[in-house]
Amino acid sequence: MSTACKKLVNTVERCVDECLEGLVAVNPGLRLVEGHRVVVRADIEDAIASGKVSLISGGGSGHEPAHAGFVGKGMLSGSVAGAVFTSPPPQSILACLRAVAKKNAGGTVVIIKNYTGDRINFGLAVERAKHEGYKCDMVVVGEDCALKSSDKTAGRRGLCGTILIEKICGALAEEGRTLEDIARIAKDAVTKMGTIGLSLSPCTIPGAGASFTLGADEIELGLGIHGEAGVKRTKLVTANEAVRMMIDHMTDPNNNSRLQVKTGDKVACMINNLGGTSVLELNIIAREAILLLGRYHYVNLSGTSVLELNIIVREAILLLGRYHYVNLGGTSVLELNIIAREAILLLGRYHYVNVGGTSVLELNIIVREAILLLGRYHYVNLGGTSVLELNIIAREAILLLESRGVAVERVYCGSFTTSLEMAGVSITLLHLDDTLRNCLDAETNAPGWVRPYLPSGQRTRTTPQKMVTEDSHNIAKQQTVTDTVSADMKQQLYNMVKTAAEQLIASEEQLNGLDKESGDGDCGSTMARGAQDILSELKSKDNPLPVGNPAELAKRLGNIAEVSMGGSSGGLYSLFFTTVAGELQKEISPSAWSSALAAGVTTIRKYGGADPGDRTMLDALYPASEELSSCLKAKKSPIESFKSAVQKCEEGAKSTATMKARAGRSSYVSQDRLKNPDPGAMAVTIWLSAVLDILSK
Ligand SMILES: Nc1ncnc2c1ncn2[C@@H]1O[C@H](COP(=O)(O)OP(=O)(O)O)[C@@H](O)[C@H]1O
Ligand SMILES: O=C[C@H](O)COP(=O)(O)O
Ligand SMILES: [Mg+2]
Ligand SMILES: [Mn+2]
């Protein structure tokens, strides 16, 4: 493991699997579906039998506790995880849908964040599920307030607000509401929500370096949760100024993705740790946000200076914060405002005349209570170690202790005593007897106590069980495929597939580097993952890729893209090869290859919504396809035509360096920061040139 990426994992390939195994080991209310990165409620059979609507969510990993950590009664029925920052493959999403739905009458709501990869992969799975007779609807969350301009982009990104939607849908499902009701309320809630991020440091994908660099005294506003660039960099400011910057940006009338907030509005405010913020800072940010938002509620009382007013407002809000929560909405705005006024007057009077009726001691206690009370509802409590690593450590500790014959009866995993944002862990062991065990199991309201999720009535941790479903064993069916091409061409196709895959594997770092600038840094790994599987299936003894039958070959390549890649590339290549396969069934001739390529390009445009010129892989594929077709029409030789097409492909890919991005992740990055070509377009030149190399031999 490179030192550029200092993390507590075993291997990059297995880190997500081991994280999920750790999560399930610590939480007996969860089950892993064997063969997939799918987590479901342990009591899923009962939940299905109840006929209530089931809920699933998912996406790339690296956002823990999202989403597997929100599986449980009252929230999700199941979750699907992809590789880090990479949307999961449709096959796993389908496995999750089948595991939580079993065609129950209620149906399933699928909640996703608005990313191209997730839209395509979850979209494909939902379409398949509908064909199979499942009832489902998809809620796409896009609530990012970062982007000010109205230029064409991939749409607002889904961020932490997704967890609020999961909670809302979970409560509605538990109440027995219908799929239609839940989807409608959730879609409406998405429009009433906004999120803005602020970062002090980059994140690091396991196995790769930092996603971007930020000066020691710099902060970045409006970044994404995959290390995507934000909208503005500034010098480090105070917590107070930072919160003002965030909320001002979020509510700015000139911001096209703003959330309007006005006096009298009631809001829930979620302060989310992006992973390495200390709890000390988190509480300060919570306080600042409450104070700032509270200002919207109160008007100046004549004769009071702004300074005094701010002090009073702060005290009143802290005090009232408690009433808000105790009253739980039963108090009208009118009454609340009267109470606010009374409290301000009361507190203000003490301040001005210095009577000291409320002691500093009491005030501090109230402040503390208010923060604790608010904190309990709002915080995602993380430390400087990612939750991904924490779960892996939990799994390792359990495995090791159990291998030594120690019964691990209770496991707690979370942030309990931090060292600010230090990346690191400690392990504590306590010998248990009945008294101590009962004490640990006793209920507490303390916000810091992270309790494993146990289904009602269950008191003990059981060895994690994996659930085997019919989707657990996805063995490609062996078929006898008849060759439709000559032995020479068969050998040539074998060489093409092999060289293209090898070249993609060799370019992993280069493509990841390009994707760090314009996206989330995983394009090379996603392509390499697919290429590895292509190589192993090419050389497989039992069921090798049918290189003698181009249509069947394209079908299998599409299947590999679907099963093992994930991300936008996985979904788009799977659609591409599936279309190509259909076209190649008709005939095998230079013009048939050319029409197949053109049809594949059309499918990418149809499902991805991008056009040539939008700075995507299409800017390499489309000119290549056009050139191939026009050269063949002009009666150039197939080899010359292909050479010319590859040249156009390379020129097209290079030209993306100066293009404005209007699709995919790069559409969020400001143009002055996009200096290199698009990774997806470069990937196309790599495999297409490899094909040309073999063809020219
Ligand atoms: N809507 C789209 N249509 C065509 N290609 C797209 C689209 N969105 C993204 N891409 C391509 O996908 C590449 C990124 O691939 P990948 O890293 O797998 O995606 P992500 O991590 O954003 O899911 C981009 O460089 C771009 O070429
Ligand atoms: O975490 C990542 C998202 O869930 C999916 O992103 P993607 O478009 O990169 O696959
Ligand atoms: Mg990705
Ligand atoms: Mn990417």
TrEMBL record:
Keywords: ATP-binding, Cobalt, Kinase, Lyase, Nucleotide-binding, Transferase. Residues 11-449 form the DhaK domain. Its EC number is 2.7.1.28, 2.7.1.29, 4.6.1.15. It catalyses: FAD = riboflavin cyclic-4',5'-phosphate + AMP + H(+); dihydroxyacetone + ATP = dihydroxyacetone phosphate + ADP + H(+); D-glyceraldehyde + ATP = D-glyceraldehyde 3-phosphate + ADP + H(+). SMART domains: Dak2 (SM01120). GO terms for cellular component: cytosol. Residues 457-466 have a biased composition (Polar residues). The keyword Transmembrane does not apply. Residues 451-472 are annotated as: Disordered. Gene3D superfamilies: 1.25.40.340, Dihydroxyacetone kinase, domain 1 (3.40.50.10440), Dihydroxyacetone kinase, domain 2 (3.30.1180.20). PROSITE patterns: DHAK, DHAL. One of its GO terms (molecular function) is glycerone kinase activity. One of its GO terms (biological process) is glycerol catabolic process. Residues 491-693 form the DhaL domain. Catalyzes both the phosphorylation of dihydroxyacetone and of glyceraldehyde, and the splitting of ribonucleoside diphosphate-X compounds among which FAD is the best substrate. Represses IFIH1-mediated cellular antiviral response. Homodimer. Interacts with IFIH1 (via the CARD domains), the interaction is inhibited by viral infection. PANTHER family: TRIOKINASE/FMN CYCLASE (PTHR28629), TRIOKINASE_FMN CYCLASE (PTHR28629:SF4). This is Triokinase/FMN cyclase.
